[in-house]
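Why M23 family metallopeptidase? Reviewers of the renewal asked for a concrete example.
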Amino acid sequence: MVENGHHPCARLDRVVHHRYGVCVKSTGPRRRLDSPQTPRTPRKGKRVASKQRSLNLRVTPAIVGLVAVASAGVGTVAVGGVADSGALSSNSYQTLSQNYVGGMELGGTNAVDISRDFDRQLIQEQSDRQAEQIELARQQVEQAVESYTEEVANQWVVPVAGYRLTARFGQSSGLWSSGRHTGLDFAGPSGSTIVSVAAGTVKSAGYEGAYGNKTVIVLEDGTEIWYAHQSRISVSEGDMVRPGDVIGYTGSTGNVTGPHLHLEVRPGGGDPVDPVAAFSNHNVSL
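Here is what the prediction returned.
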């Protein structure tokens, strides 16, 4: 409020009153602004330190509140002859921000230049490398499958379960027409399941003299496996079998002294060899 043409607050106080609506009264003496000021002349040889006039203010709750409000508003209030510089306006902040961003866009030292050509080249290189890795993995899988298929095809298994080896290969006895045993006997209960020891094709299946009911299976390498003295045959000529497929049952047909499976191994369909060694060559222990 203005009384008799004069503002109730001093000049500095009017700045605060204009901004915050209150007057801040100084407790120190005031100097007239219209009175002449005599500058001091420094003495020769000595430097006269300038005196700074301190301004004593009574700290009141109102002042504390004003300082808090001024700090929160990022404003600046000058006291003791310093003019009020005011807070940064939103327009000024926007201008500074635009200048800073503009400097980045105009090739400032902090700018990052991303080349789209480089990105395309990098993507192409990585895609080609990935395709090579996928192709290599596919080839490895195919090789593993092929190797596994060959391994399974050549895998041998024991022809019967619950057996006991009675007559071995090469034994001499008058029980055999040749004077020596040409195979390996797996003795066991009559009717026990007989399975193919390896993958192959049934060459013949039927009764054959001293061998009784006999089945001949030719393997992929030409080796023939003979299964004799069966009580019953469950495959026919031309059937393809895999390791573990049931081909018949143990019995006592032919020239025998008891139920058992007589098995012979004949490479290339020629002379018989020791079945124990043949099984061992295919990682099967008897």
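Confidence is low (pLDDT under 50) at residues 74-88, 95-107. This is the kind of structural detail the renewal will allow us to pursue systematically.
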